[in-house]
Amino acid sequence: SRENFPDKSYGNIVLPQGNYEAFRIIIGSGEGRNWWCVMFPPLCFVDESKAEVEYDKVEEEI
């Protein structure tokens, strides 16, 4: 399916916001109460107004 994604940066690589072809996985009832971001934190989108991102740590993981 095609999904809309916000800007996403991985270290010094920036992927622009846009509508991209995506493989969407819905876990359980799809309400967002799962452990996906715990298992793969660099892939998750963070509301930067409510959280701090350790960019150095993300760069090391990539």
From TrEMBL:
Alphabetical list of InterPro entries matching this protein: Spore_II_R (IPR014202)
Lineage of source species: unclassified sequences, metagenomes, organismal metagenomes
A Pfam family matched in the record: Spore_II_R
Full protein name: Stage II sporulation protein R
